[in-house]
Amino acid sequence: MEAMFETRSLSSLAKVFPDEELKEEAFLKASAFLNETYTFQVAYRQKESRMHKVKIRVEGKLSDLVEVRAVGLVPSELPVYHDHDENVLRTTPGLYPDPLHPLENGKLPAPPNQWRSAWVTVELNEELASGIYPIKVIFETESGEQLGEEIFELELLTIALPEQKLINTHWFHSDCLATQYNVEVFSEKHWQLIDRYIQTAAKHGMNMLLTPLFTPPLDTEVGGERPTVQLVEVEKTEDGYRFDFNKLTRWIEMATERGIKYIEFSHLFTQWGANHAPKIIASENGETSKIFGWETDAAGEEYKAFLAEFLPALIDYIKEQRLEESVYFHVSDEPNLSNLDSYKQASEIIHHYLSEFPIIDALSDYQFYEKGLVKNPIPANDHIGSFIENDVPDLWTYYCCAQNQKVSNRFFAFPSARNRISGIQFYKFNITGFLHWGYNFWNSQLSKRQIDPFHVTDADLAFPSGDAFLVYPGEEGPIESIRMEVFYEALQDLRALQLLEKLAGREQVLEIIESSLAQSLTFTEYPHDSRWLLIIREKINKKITELSIKEKIK
């Protein structure tokens, strides 16, 4: 007799689509360390057309540490570009699993004959004892009749992972918070939203925060403007300029309190060429107006004179606040060789004042570094080869919409394993930092209009869905995504690998990673099977446990 309600426990790396049969085999047990966040899924399908919701509850000693969310579906009109590779789940437009919705009264949506998924998160802590903890996930009708259950066994290892070393930034678009929630920029409501979104970011391993000294000149149409989000108040006087850093102080203190360790000051020149100044607003004789922007020549004397006053004042502020080890600067985002001269001029201005601080920029042509135009280059993960070959120290990497062939990325249409593999790649190549442009970019391409992220996931057919944002706007704060959770798992993998290196040495860690591979792991060559990632992580956990016991016996 055909079951009317089906369930299957799955790893976090599965993506459950409502219109196809489950492909992934059952995943029923795993191990985790004391201070990890562990996630798995339980897929379910009901065939009783009169029932539209089911109740879900969790039993077990860890139940107080468990949160269950509903994996929601959102549309994608542009899942991939035309020149995608074969490591994709789908290429067709349609509904894709991504947002993780909090439950309403413990209920999940259950439309008939559709596979759906419950996302189970276990927030472990260092007060727990080691051992195997069964987690029973029970499905019931709204009247309380049991429909099905799954039991997942989580083995808790009494070891804590080390603190995250990787510097990790996903660009925080504070203007999008103001427009999406229809609040005034830097009103108390806006500050509350900023706080909540920072808190969620930090909880998922984002320890660097894009900080808008002036409105960031990012993804803006030439001649267009994004809403003003300027933390430094500027007053134009007869003698020059005065600067008020009070809002900046509030921003940094809030970020630090939430766990942010690094402050990433916004770009001081426009994107894709460094030809102009960012939008800067100043007051003069009680009147507020724009003093710099698209009409400003980046190499012109007026903007140079402004920077000659502003940057020394900012340096004094940094030193007063004891932020010397925490701040990073940008010149201009994503220049190419055709912009070499304009970038060189802008870079020389910035380096004249800021040579004692790290200056980072996303750029993928090695000549920019070779010519000394950037101290800390951030090449894309599909252009990182020449930087690795030349032993560039403290190397970062990034990806965005263009990185759609062979390398890891986080598009809806990509397998989650293609997202999570980053952690192992970061380890092997000693990556210092990771940058992504979209934590919450809820605009169309070039910010021509605001979009609804629950209905437009590709920036108006510009970027494959999943590129522009990691979080969705909930009523009071962020709704997280599968992609965000999986990338955090990659960061936890990295921390586990670093812990094992401390216990066994780097050679043994690389041996565990590569012993089962036909060829050495790179940014473009890696196993596509999610099972490989899950098995490797269990091997790492087992080896750490063995060596830790030996250390204790000594």
From TrEMBL:
Coiled coil: none annotated. This is Glycoside hydrolase 123 catalytic domain-containing protein. Pfam families: GH123_cat (PF13320). Gene3D superfamilies: Glycosidases. It comes from Virgibacillus profundi. Residues 171-500 form the Glycoside hydrolase 123 catalytic domain. Transmembrane segments: none annotated. It comes from the Bacteria.
